[in-house]
Amino acid sequence: MTIYSLYIYDRHCTCVYYQDWHRTKLPKPAAEGGILPAVSHQVYPQPQQDTISTSDPISTYSSPRNTLSSSSGVVVAVNEEQRTTTPQPPQAQSGLSFDEEAKLVYGVVLSLRNMIKKLSGKDEQFVNYKTSTYKLHLYETLSGYKFVMLSDPNADSLRFVLRQIYSGPFLEYVVRNPLVKMDSKERGIDNEYFRTSTDRMIRGLSVFQ
Amino acid sequence: MAIFGLWVINKAGGLVYERNFGDGLPRLTSNEYLVLAGTLHGIHAITSRLSPIGPSSGAQVIEGETFKMTILLTATGTKFVLLTSLAESTADVVLQKVYEVYADAVMKNPFHTPEMPIRSEGFDRRITALLG
């Protein structure tokens, strides 16, 4: 049992926040202009100088700050703090880039929501769907924000968790945060406090292991 | 524990059979059912690509607040969709039986054209006997 990822969409269909946990198949970073800034640092298109690949050590030696490197090919010291964006161990990436993936998730959620409404004949909400490897949960707020979470297929309904994220961290660090421009269509809602408190909440769940 | 409906969707996304049972869900026009079946076919394909951990099947169960749709995808691409109440726990088993009935009463029928709407009294009768 585990939780894979969280997407938040605003009422203009744009992804404003993304976070993931135990994903083994990570999305490629989004294409330039594919997502708003402040959605997720991890999938934001990265400038060229940040993508130093570990398989090409020559480029680090050529750095003028890097005076202590030996000719044996071992880096003795690097006068630079380890950046969080520098290459992580190579992980399997899904064929999709993040912006495409976010659009597909939204499309599926919206179509299913309309289908459930149509079939029920009343204002019934779509709650979740399940495949052999994951389960997708939806919680929609009255203001049109959609909270989408991917979890283990055997998890129970996680709607209450999404509601908790909304009524806890989201209200506290996004809605009541004067620095977050909601509904701007220019920026996402990512900020350190929201990310940390959401992360803490998810990690504290019994389904998260 | 109630069954509200059964759909059979061919491999191209066309609705070839549709039955409503009971009055748990309102009756829609046949055109609306065709559109919904087409949408479901598309969604099913997309859901298999969104997996966070490697290869995945398409959606198997879709839940609303008062009903759910259980989907059986056969090896040939035909989809059987059963609309039931949330408490129905035997939907998978029922769908397997529907598939058997389909194999017997539709695929073995020499007058049936594959991928075309199912108009067979025998199939209707056996589905009625199975699902009520």
TrEMBL record, chain A:
Belongs to the TRAPP small subunits family. BET5 subfamily. It comes from the Eukaryota. Keywords: Endoplasmic reticulum, ER-Golgi transport, Golgi apparatus, Transport. It comes from Somion occarium. Pfam families: Sybindin (PF04099). Gene3D superfamilies: 3.30.450.70. It is found in: Endoplasmic reticulum; Golgi apparatus, cis-Golgi network. Residues 46-73 are annotated as: Disordered. Its main location: endoplasmic reticulum. Part of the multisubunit transport protein particle (TRAPP) complex. SUPFAM superfamilies: SNARE-like. This is Trafficking protein particle complex subunit. InterPro entries: Longin-like_dom_sf, TRAPPC.
Automatic annotation (TrEMBL), chain B:
InterPro entries: Longin-like_dom_sf, TRAPPC. Keywords: Endoplasmic reticulum, ER-Golgi transport, Golgi apparatus, Transport. Its main location: endoplasmic reticulum. CDD domains: TRAPPC4_synbindin. The keyword Metal-binding does not apply. SMART domains: Sybindin (SM01399). Belongs to the TRAPP small subunits family. TRAPPC4 subfamily. PANTHER family: TRAFFICKING PROTEIN PARTICLE COMPLEX SUBUNIT, TRAFFICKING PROTEIN PARTICLE COMPLEX SUBUNIT 4. This is Trafficking protein particle complex subunit.
